[in-house]
Design brief:
The structure holds two protein chains of two kinds.
Chain A lengths: L21 E6 L4 H16 L7 E7 L5 H15 L7 H9 L1 E5 L5 H16 L5 E5 L6 H10 L9 E5 L7 H14 L5 E3 L7 H11 L13 E9 L8 H26 L8 H14 L8 H4 E7 L1 E3 L2 E3 L17 E7 L9 E7 L6 E8 L19 E7 L3 E9 L7 E9 H5 L6 H11 L8 H19 L5 E5 L6 H8 L9
Parallel strand pairs in A: 1-2, 1-4, 2-3, 4-5, 5-6, 7-12, 8-17
Antiparallel strand pairs in A: 7-13, 8-11, 9-10, 11-12, 13-14, 14-15, 15-16
Chain B lengths: L3 H4 L1 E3 L2 H21 L10 E7 L2 H14 L5 E9 L8 E7 L12 E8 L6 H5 L9 E5 L8 H9 L2 E4 L7 H10 L6 E4 H4 L2 H10 L12 E10 L9 H14 L2 E2 L11 E6 L5 E10 L8 E10 L2 E9 L5 E8 L2 E9 L5 H10 L5 H13 L1
Classes of the chains: A alpha/beta, B alpha/beta.
């Protein structure tokens, strides 16, 4: 690290910290992710004055294209996908001046990229600071990382960092292989593995709820918690992603990364500090304590489903196997339900039920902490008929918020008790647009804060949990169940939780 | 006469007023339920607005109503009416629960307390029972706060935050030091005029995040700040420009050399000195700018040297009133030029911003102190 003088004008809580001057190199610049997520996020950061005064974006992809054509493409993409609209042409015009494009169809062309980088760097005074963003399909990760190393794309001074998109590997072995290639060029603390769920405001709020308040943590244990349910429901099908999705399925697409991260945040011990090392140390401890589901147990602890035809919001939709680009006999799962245990002092014996699916009735991601019922019943059975166990629900999307149910006396003569809901809505309480998760994550990567990114050992633990389940499925130890689109998943999932005398929430 | 259509029905006592509010809340909840909505009585703060003219009270009430969705509150508008000497001191209370048409209905309560006659001693006793317990109290003083006044002191003592707008002060250079003294009540003071400067401070600070330009910050030799005046140029309100200068001086350790001196056309021209003793020429220039409110900063130019290099950092509001151009000129060559959004902020945005920050702003206080040293 080079030592730079402090900027005394930065002091004060109103001024957000902007990153140091830097060049951002996007590989896969002609792709969907760049158009839908990255450029709209960068443009919105520019609008909010959050980009450094000296900043350049260099797009790179195989396609030959002039920088002007690239800028025009991005302009149209931002106009379509930005969360703030219409596009502010004045701001875009000067922001676009800092955008360049270099085609990298072959190995030699990376030398052109190096020259453009060196020239841009000198022009804007970026001091060699570089952020490489891999927004390509995963097959291109390794060749690009090797090229960054072989062609000396890292700056001679300043910092270099790399952002790797999901999926990070296909299983434990390929993830470790990818890491070993990455580490030929980058140190682990220079690697930022994106799990965009972690950039969501409400996901960060899980940590705030748990560790900035004193009333929740004492009851956040097996003594008080009956079980936990984590749900990530989508009403969408696979849209245009058939080719990719059919080769991975819901387990690799959602459970391995997003749901296990949510589970880790709910289950982790309090970190000593809110920094990348402490937070990720605690998360990886939980992941390590997650009880393995061996191939032989997949019959009793897992459910895999695939949607058939049905109705979503009144519209008829086709089944998975009829989707364009999906094999008519595809065995890929679009629904997963698991019953997991965390084998540690805090959670011994407390089940964590997690489920995700496509073509469920509505889009909803939430975490529900179900507490035990009151130990001794002092009210008559008739009076307490309407009472349920307390439940704390953290809604992640949409309609972000937190609610707590508890029993209250119905205001009539005599005693009747009913469950009521105490509800906190993010929208109503703050009335500001939450930043998009990509804005948060790009800014964090530019600042070098890795707290919201996944570390190598986390990714490996996640695969280590998922691999044996996939192996059991592959060995035919759990049949693929089917469910109609627009329902809450296969019957087997209801049975999975009903065996324990519990039921899924209706999100 | 009080416009009951705007301020709600009159109540005879504080008890009656609370009963009426409870009734109105129930009615609003029932009404919302009929439309299939749930209505939250989310209260985040008590907002006490003090004004001595009904137009100001109304304007404030409207701003608060606009903000209710972001910062649901109980708003207590105090309307002080001193005109009638000899009138027996009286308190008149009105309340209502405004209905929002928005998609997300939130209850907020508005109370008007009109105090007449010799009310200085009794005004706090009206406010105290009206405050919702356990919620912070924000006091928004419209107009110029009087110096050494009982009612001001009493209300400030109740408040956690004291909100003023130094743009409204007739003589900002005299009133601001008075305000600074209120800090003895351990109340956090915020100035909406300071909030207007946040974007300017951000853009200035960003120049010096660039390591290569950072050394120029220690070599500033000249500052020019432009601020807007009315077409006739009679009323000069330099308080915003002065605050910006106070901020730079306090952050960079500049010292006053000579007192503020008027220069041509209502501007100010004077010298300060850097920590290393080198002089800094400061010029605050009023100019007519279409679309800006009198007093708003319209541009800043910072001249600096480092070794043999010279640099100029310029931020200028664009004629469209919504943008600013930030330019860095190093050795006579433009090295960076960005157009950034710089929307003119209304009372609503400014107040919303203030309500979001729940503590005093140390940077403002030292900027104010630096300014007082000049006066």
């Amino acid at each position: 690290m080079t030592v730079t003088l402090q900027n005394p004008l930065r002091e004060g809580l109103r001024l957000a910290r902007t990153p140091e001057p830097a060049c951002l190199v996007i590989f896969g610049a002609s792709g969907d992710l760049t158009a839908r997520k990255l450029m709209p996020a960068l443009y919105n950061l520019a609008l909010q004055h959050l980009l450094p005064a000296s900043f350049a974006v260099i797009g790179s992809a195989r396609r030959r294209m002039t920088a002007d054509a690239f800028r025009t493409e991005l302009h149209d993409a931002v106009a379509e996908y930005s969360r703030t609209r219409p596009i502010n042409e004045e701001v875009w015009a000067t922001f676009a001046r800092s955008i360049d494009y270099v085609a990298t169809p072959d190995d030699r062309s990376y030398d052109d990229l190096r020259q453009v980088l060196a020239r841009t760097d000198a022009e804007i005074g970026a001091n060699g600071n570089r952020l490489f963003y891999l927004a390509t399909p995963p097959a291109a990760y390794e060749p690009i990382i090797r090229a960054i190393g072989a062609h000396g794309l890292r700056g001679e001074s300043g910092w270099s960092r790399v952002v790797v998109e999901k999926p990070y590997g296909y299983d434990l072995q390929s993830a470790m292989q990818l890491t070993s290639v990455v580490q030929e060029v980058f140190r682990e603390d220079e690697v930022f593995r994106i799990d965009h769920y972690l950039g969501k405001e409400t996901v960060q709020n899980i940590l705030v709820l748990r560790f900035a308040n004193s009333i929740f943590e004492p009851i956040w244990t097996r003594q008080y918690v009956d079980h936990v349910q984590i749900t990530a429901a989508e009403s969408l099908g696979i849209e245009e992603r058939a080719g990719y999705y059919d080769s991975v399925g819901a387990m690799r697409d959602i459970v391995q990364n997003h749901l296990l991260q949510l589970l880790a945040l709910v289950g982790m011990e309090p970190p000593a500090a809110f920094d990348d090392r402490s937070v990720r140390d605690e998360k990886v401890k939980v992941l390590r304590a997650l009880r393995q589901i061996a191939p032989d147990d997949v019959g009793s602890l897992t459910v895999r489903g695939q949607y058939g035809p049905g109705f979503i919001e009144g519209e008829r939709v086709v089944g998975y196997r009829e989707e364009h680009g999906v094999a008519p006999d595809s065995q890929t799962e679009t629904y997963v339900a698991l019953k997991c245990f965390i084998d540690n002092w805090r959670w011994e014996g407390t089940p964590f039920y997690i489920r995700t699916g496509k073509r469920l009735p509505k889009r909803s991601t939430e975490i529900a902490i179900r507490f035990r019922v009151a130990p001794h019943r002092i009210f008559t059975r008739e009076a307490s008929e309407g009472v349920d166990a307390n439940e704390l629900v953290i809604r992640i999307q949409p309609d972000e918020g937190i609610s707590l149910t508890f029993g209250a006396k119905v205001p009539v003569q005599g005693l009747r008790i009913r469950s009521v809901n105490m509800d906190f809505g993010y929208g109503e309480s703050f009335m500001v647009d939450a930043p998009d998760s990509y804005e948060t994550l790009i800014l964090d990567a530019l600042r070098g804060d890795a707290t919201l990114f996944t570390r190598r050992d986390e990714v490996e633990q996640q695969w280590a949990f998922v691999d044996p389940i996939l192996a059991g499925w592959h060995a035919g130890l759990q049949k693929l169940a089917s469910y109609a689109a627009g329902t809450w998943g296969p019957e087997q999932a209801d049975e999975l939780i009903a065996r324990d005398g519990r039921s899924w929430r209706r999100p | 006469m009080i416009d009951e259509a705007f301020w709600g029905a009159q109540a005879t006592s504080i008890d009656a007023l609370e009963r009426e509010l409870a009734r109105l809340r129930r009615a609003a909840v029932a009404h919302a339920r009929e439309r299939g909505q749930t209505l939250a009585r989310a209260s985040v703060l008590n907002l006490v607005v003090y004004s001595e003219r009904e137009v100001h009270a109304r304007r404030a009430a409207r701003a608060v109503a606009d903000l209710a969705l972001r910062h649901p509150s109980r708003a207590i508008v105090l309307l002080g009416d001193r005109d009638r000497d000899g009138v027996v001191a009286s308190v008149q209370l009105h309340c209502h629960v405004p209905q929002s048409d928005g998609a997300k209905p939130v209850l907020y309560e508005q109370i008007l307390a009109r105090v007449r006659g010799d009310f200085d001693e009794r005004v706090a006793s009206v406010v105290i029972p009206l405050l919702v317990p356990d919620l912070p109290v924000f006091l928004w003083w419209t107009g110029t706060p009087p110096s050494d006044a009982r009612h001001l002191d009493d209300l400030v003592t109740l408040a956690d935050r004291f909100i003023i707008d130094s743009a409204d002060f007739a003589r900002a250079d005299r009133t601001l030091p008075e305000i600074a003294r209120l800090a003895r009540h351990r109340v956090a003071i915020t100035d909406l005029n300071w909030a207007r400067l946040t974007h300017w401070r951000e853009l200035i600070a960003q120049f010096f995040d660039v390591p290569a330009w950072r050394p120029f910050l220690d070599g500033i030799g000249g500052i020019r700040v432009g601020f807007a005046v009315d077409m006739d140029g009679r009323d000069i309100h330099p308080s915003q420009a002065l605050l910006l200068l106070g901020w730079l001086a306090s952050r960079l350790g500049w010292r006053p050399v000579e007192a503020l001196a008027p220069s041509e056309a209502g501007g100010l021209l004077f010298r300060m000195s850097r920590g290393d003793g080198a002089p800094i020429m400061v010029r605050l220039r009023p100019r007519f700018e279409r679309g800006l409110d009198a007093g708003d900063v319209s541009g800043i130019r910072v001249q600096a040297t480092h070794g043999r290099d010279t640099a100029e950092f310029v931020i200028k509001r664009a004629p469209d009133e919504r943008h600013a151009t930030a330019t860095a000129i190093i050795g006579g060559v433009v090295r960076s030029e960005r157009v950034m959004p710089l929307p003119a902020l209304g009372i609503r945005e400014l107040l919303g911003e203030e309500l979001a920050i729940a503590r005093n702003d140390h940077v403002y206080e030292v900027a104010l102190a630096a300014l007082m040293a000049l006066a």
